[in-house]
Specification:
single chain; 521 residues; alpha/beta; Ferritin; 18 helices; 43% helix
């Protein structure tokens, strides 16, 4: 049986094959694509074997064509492994990927950004061919036929393979540094957001900056993968491919994932061309994105040679910026306003954002005031520093909600040293830390003020309190986490200093004796 650790081992072997050749942010695409080809090949092989027990000839071919996906012989992993010593092995892998796409519309465009014959990334044949041969060997002994996957009672084979894929995305994120923030959200953060929006069956779940879709998948699972509708958009072409593979490996074949600029070109629209409405929206958006509005001026038609392009509310036909236009250099509120405009009548948003969205002034201050006055802010949760890939700054989760029955806002400061595990590479929220956040939030929702307000951790602010603070939502204004320092006993400190001095004097006398005996002093 193939275990989760077996899959991890093969993935790490693939990573080691590329290490020191190209950057991890780039070679992740090669390694994860090869895992995907191996998964397709082994799954198709098993499906055909099962059909062969009941059918043959034309009837077998007809049944094969009804499978979720089909593979020609030259598109299988076994074929590529057999030809691993071919001088044009990079070209053969590319042809296999093209064949997989052309035979399966559901996988169309999946590999368009990956080139196994790239001279720029992999070098000439002398360097490239050994790398690709080793990569094929790394996965050769990995059996990914569904019946061979070792599962526990709560899992299906797709969970094991999909989770291993997500694990490796996280590891690549660790290796990729700043480049990683665009495609991966730490699992514990995904868990917090998923539990906050709490999807229900028949609801629509949406991530406007979905990255590799790990956050979107975890959120959808809360409502039941087969019971919710899943939507996502991502601007990066290679990243949207990661997301589609991630969905497919988790046995999710009906997710609507699209590539494009969510702000300038949102693609999830209803029949009238209006923004589609969603019940649950989660996002780990790009922090303080510069030039976020450039997509509204693609041909330069609004450019004045005497000054830079200035975004105006009238340029957005979906009216997302009627409450105010965020500054050109910080797109945080642009994404948040998009999410707010995309909420259904009972919509919930849980989005990761930099703390600046809570207190920055000028246009952002006016937007914040309008959003508070519309009674859309439900909670603000401060997170510890150094949790995310690509940045070490502390972030927050801001929660919006439509149809709120009260005007209070819950503030949680979960950034204290007792609320996370400090690690050298990245800090981490533990299960108990996640539980504390969620239990506090749910107590607030249920009206249990006693459990929702925890000293030095959380506070329920009345609307007037926020108004008195001039609509500033900075958490320290509402949650007092000040810890008094212990009183210093000066007498005890002086006694300790005197004791230390006495010990030093004693040591110096002993040293003097030894130096005298050695005729050195």
């Amino acid at each position: 049986m193939t275990s989760f650790d077996d899959i991890k081992k093969a993935l790490w072997a693939g990573a080691d094959t590329f290490r020191d050749t190209i950057d991890a942010a780039n070679y992740k695409d090669y390694v994860l694509s090869m895992l995907f080809v191996k998964y397709l090949s082994d799954t198709y092989k098993e499906n055909v074997k099962e059909l062969s027990k009941q059918y043959n000839g034309i009837r077998l071919e007809r049944q094969k064509s009804q499978l979720p996906f089909v593979l020609k012989e030259e598109c299988t992993f076994d074929y590529l492994l057999k030809h691993k010593n071919a001088v044009d092995i990079g070209g053969k892998i590319n042809e296999a990927l093209t064949g997989i796409e052309s035979s399966n519309p559901i996988l169309s465009g999946l590999f368009r950004t990956i080139d196994f014959n790239s001279h720029g990334n992999l070098g000439g044949k002398e360097q490239k061919n050994p790398i690709l041969r080793n990569l094929l060997n790394d996965f050769a002994d990995l059996d990914l036929r569904p019946k061979q996957i070792e599962t526990n009672q709560e899992q299906i084979p797709a969970d094991v393979i999909g989770d291993a894929y997500e694990y490796m995305i996280g590891e690549f994120a660790t290796m990729s540094g700043k480049k990683a923030g665009t495609f991966f959200t730490p699992q514990e953060i995904s868990e917090v957001l998923a539990q906050i929006v709490e999807p229900k069956p028949n609801e629509r779940v949406y991530d406007p900056t979905c990255g590799s879709a790990s956050l979107l998948i975890r959120t959808a699972k809360k409502g039941g993968i087969n019971k919710v509708a899943i939507y996502g958009q991502e601007v990066g072409t290679s990243t949207i491919s990661l997301a589609r593979m991630n969905m497919f490996l988790h046995n999710i074949t009906d997710a609507k994932l699209v590539q494009g600029d969510t702000l300038a070109n949102p693609k999830h629209l209803d029949g009238d061309g209006n923004l589609m409405k969603f019940d649950c929206i989660v996002a780990n958006m790009p922090f303080s994105k510069d030039k976020w509005a450039s997509g509204f001026n693609p041909g330069g038609e609004f450019f004045d040679s005497k000054k830079d392009f200035t975004m105006e509310p009238s340029l957005d036909r979906w009216h997302r910026f009627d409450l105010g236009v965020p500054p050109a250099s910080k797109g945080d509120w642009a994404f948040l306003l998009h999410m707010i405009a995309s909420m259904s009548t009972s919509g919930r948003v849980a989005a990761v954002a930099p703390h600046g969205v809570l207190f920055r002034g000028a246009s952002e201050g006016r937007i914040r005031e309008a959003i508070v006055e519309k009674n859309l802010v439900d909670a603000v949760i401060g997170l510890p520093e150094n949790l995310f890939y690509g940045t070490s700054i502390p972030a927050c989760v801001i929660v919006f909600k439509k149809g709120r029955k009260n005007t209070d806002v819950l503030f949680i400061d979960a950034s204290g040293k007792d609320n996370y595990e400090k690690n050298k590479a990245k800090n981490k929220l533990r299960s108990k830390d996640i539980k504390k956040i969620i239990e506090t939030y749910r107590a607030y929702l249920s009206g249990n003020k006693k459990k929702a307000e925890v000293e030095k951790y959380s506070h329920i602010a009345k609307l007037q309190e926020i108004i008195d603070n001039e609509y500033n939502l900075n958490i320290p204004r509402y949650v007092d986490t000040f810890e008094e320092e212990e009183q210093i006993d000066i007498s005890a400190v002086n006694a300790e200093i005197a004791d230390i001095k006495g010990k030093i004097a004693g040591v110096e006398r002993e040293m003097g004796k030894y130096l005298k005996e050695l005729e050195l002093g």
